[in-house]
Amino acid sequence: MTGTNGPTRPSSVGTAIDLHVHTTASSCGYMTPSEVVGYTRASGRRFLAITDHNTATGAVEARNIAKASGDDLVVIVGMELSTADFGHVLVFGEGVEDDWGWKSMMPMPRHLPDGWVAIQAHPFRDLVKLALSGPLKFDLPDLPPSISAIERWNGNDLLSKAPDRRADLDEASLSYIAAQGRSAVASSDAHRAVSMHAYHTVFPRPVRYVADVAEQIKSGEAYPGSASEAELAEIRTSWRRRNAIGWHLMGLDWQAISTKKGHDSDEASEAIRIYGIAQNIVGQGLGAEHLSNETGMPLATAMDFMAIVHEENLDPPRVR
Question: Is residue 38 part of a domain?
Answer without folding.
Answer: yes
